[in-house]
Amino acid sequence: MSRREEILQKAMAIPNMPMPVQKVLAYIGNADADLRQLAKIIEFDPGLTVNVLRMANSAFFGGGTKVSTVKEALMRLGLGRLYQLVIASGVAPLARFAIKGYGLRPGELLEHSVAVAVASETLARELGVVAPPYTFTAGLLVNIGKTVMGSFLEVDAAPILTLAHERQISFEQAEELILGINHAELGALLLEKWGIPTPIVNVVRYRLRPDESPEPDLALDLVHVGDVIAKMTGIGMGIDGLQYAPSEAAFARLDVSPQQMENVMVAILEQIAEVRDILMENTL
Amino acid sequence: MEIVVNISDMKVTNRARDVLVTHALGSCLGLAAYDPVAGVAGLIHCLLPLSRDGKVPAKNPFMYVNTGIPQMIRTMYGRGATREHLVLKAAGCGRMMHISNQFDTGASNIAALKKLLQVNEMRLSAEDVGGTIPRTMRLFADTGRILISSCGRSWEL
User: Fold this and answer.
1) Distance between CA atoms of A90 and A110, rounded to whole angstroms?
2) Has residue A30 got a pLDDT over 90?
3) What residues does each domain of chain B span?
4) Which CATH number covers residue A234?
């Protein structure tokens, strides 16, 4: 068996998302979904209820007068946001572990993922474009492959990094040479298996190489540049550090200016704490 | 005691037993300043080179090289440090591979520092900047020793 096949086989054995999350996702996928019914499913789960209320009352997602019931929260957040939140609540706990193989302390990967998600949405606001609704969630999930590589599969990233430096190639290219697969592709395959919607999976798959995406996608460009910005700030950086190449085409398509990039860096420092706390403190 | 300096943060101490540390220097600049005579140590972690329109941002001056560093050094003067004895060492200012110059915040950060020092007729004693590695920077207040760690290795600066 090749290393790639061995990794895929082990990764596919990773348990699915928590049951309440699966239930809610299946329900939202239902064309007849109604908010009252959905509120009931969520209220059945205390962890999810707390997350929904906190998210609806947070400055980043909602703000304004305080809401105190799940139904009010749903009215404010809308189905799209709720969907993101439920996926985030299901996957965030995985990113809380220390990921030794990739040099990440407990919580660091979640911090980086939140920085990518917040940066992608903030970038859209800064550019005056409307981010597709799945942008935030996709940003939050881009590192799931690292979680799998570094903790479940116990891959040691040190030799990968050494190769990347020796050959002056990006970290994910070195992953491919040594493991036969990079963490972006592995993450996408896992999310696909978990039934996460295709637009989200595609962002995760191509976020390091947006130019390889079969079709242009605003969310992908936003997450790619959001990821570059998050990496530059250093928040939640693993041993792979800045050993990645930004796509000039994605920067050009979005028409980002250096000033706008700096504004996003400042904004994410102010905003990640709130989002991180919601995801860190209430796990399902 | 180990005192953590966050992103856009600065700490000064004159307790010899303290170690100032800043983690996750990506494109950010870490600047350590030490006065061996007065025994005063300072460490700052700046996110960006220049605050807009040159004003000191009320919220967080330490976010920027051009406002944060002068403030740190003035704080150190207030604790007895002098310009003649100050030893300055810089780390960080990394960059993504092949990033175009206009988006290279790491290069802008080190350039802003060099300009600031030139205007004030001061100089760096040592620097470990650029490249793609993440850095942790430690300043030991008893001796002024600087330790950089990255990817499981450590070296003195």
Assistant:
1) 13
2) no
3) 2-156
4) 1.10.3210.10
CB contact under 8 A, A234 and B25: yes
The CA-CA-CA angle for residues A271, A272, A277, to 5°, reads: 115
A238 token code pair? 């693993």
Element (H, E) at B149: strand B146-150
The range of the structural domain enclosing residue A117 comes to 3-14+95-281
The interface pTM score, or ipTM, of the predicted complex is 0.94
- In three-state secondary structure terms, A269 is helix
Determine, yes or no, domain membership for A102.
yes
Of the pLDDT bands very low, low, confident and very high (cuts 50, 70, 90), residue A283 is very low
| Contact (CB, 8 A) for B19 and B7 | no
A32 or B105: whose pLDDT is higher?
Answer: B105
CB count within 10 Å of CB A68 equals: 11
Cβ(B73)–Cβ(B10) below 8 Å: no
Instruction: Determine the distance in angstroms separating the CA of B95 from the nearest CA of chain A, rounded to an integer.
Output: 6
Q: Give the closest of B8, B96, B100 to A242, CB-based.
A: B96
Chain B residue numbers touching A234 (CB-CB < 8 A): 7, 23-28, 134
Mark which residues 64-93 of B lie under 8 Å from A by CB: none
> pTM higher than 0.80 for the full model?
yes
Q: Does B102 lie at the interface with A, CB-CB under 8 angstroms?
A: yes
pLDDT of residue B54: 55
Nearest-Cα residue of chain A relative to residue B62 = A266
Tell me the β-bridge partners of B140: B19
What CATH architecture is B2-156? 2-Layer Sandwich (3.30)
Which two three-digit tokens encode residue A170?
């990006």
Question: Looking at chain A, which residue has its C-alpha nearest residue B98?
Answer: A245
In a domain, residue A242? The reply is yes
Which chain B residues are Cβ-neighbours of A246 within 8 angstroms? Answer: 96, 98-99, 103
Give domain status of residue A31, yes or no.
no
Mutating which of B66, B99, B135, B149 best tests the A interface, going by the most A Cβ atoms within 10 A?
B99
